[in-house]
Amino acid sequence: MTIFQVTLKNCAFYAHHGVFEQEKALGQRFFVDVVMDVEAGDALGSDDIEQTVHYGLVYELVEKIMTGSRRNLIETLANDVALGLTAWSPMIRRVEVAIRKPSAPIAGILDYVEVRVEHRN
């Protein structure tokens, strides 16, 4: 069995996730990385997009989850993205989702808070 990796890096979404009222009301930008180990099947030989994981559709699914229902925790959000992707395609053998929150309400200087979740099929 051949496995290849597909990565979507630094996808940006505006959403209203967070525990605090200000986060819920104002929203903020979130950045998402998705790394998928994909079972190759016939894709590498056939050169047919129907035989692989279409990363444009992956982006659309991530966007739907990120901008859909509001969550308090980015941990829950990352888990929902990972579960959504593995449920969507059995070709995805492993997925790692990282979500970065650059405007985390922390009294300190930092670039962002990041959470990573990994699921395997």
From TrEMBL:
It catalyses: 7,8-dihydroneopterin = 6-hydroxymethyl-7,8-dihydropterin + glycolaldehyde. SUPFAM superfamilies: Tetrahydrobiopterin biosynthesis enzymes-like. GO terms for molecular function: dihydroneopterin aldolase activity. It comes from the Bacteria. Gene3D superfamilies: 3.30.1130.10. It is an enzyme of class 4 (lyase). Keywords: Folate biosynthesis, Lyase. GO terms for cellular component: cytoplasm. Its EC number is 4.1.2.25. Pathway: Cofactor biosynthesis; tetrahydrofolate biosynthesis; 2-amino-4-hydroxy-6-hydroxymethyl-7,8-dihydropteridine diphosphate from 7,8-dihydroneopterin triphosphate: step 3/4. GO terms for biological process: folic acid biosynthetic process; tetrahydrofolate biosynthetic process. The keyword Lyase applies. Pfam families: FolB (PF02152). Residues 6-119 form the Dihydroneopterin aldolase/epimerase domain. Belongs to the DHNA family. NCBIfam families: folB, folB_dom. Catalyzes the conversion of 7,8-dihydroneopterin to 6-hydroxymethyl-7,8-dihydropterin. This is 7,8-dihydroneopterin aldolase. It comes from Rhizobium wenxiniae.
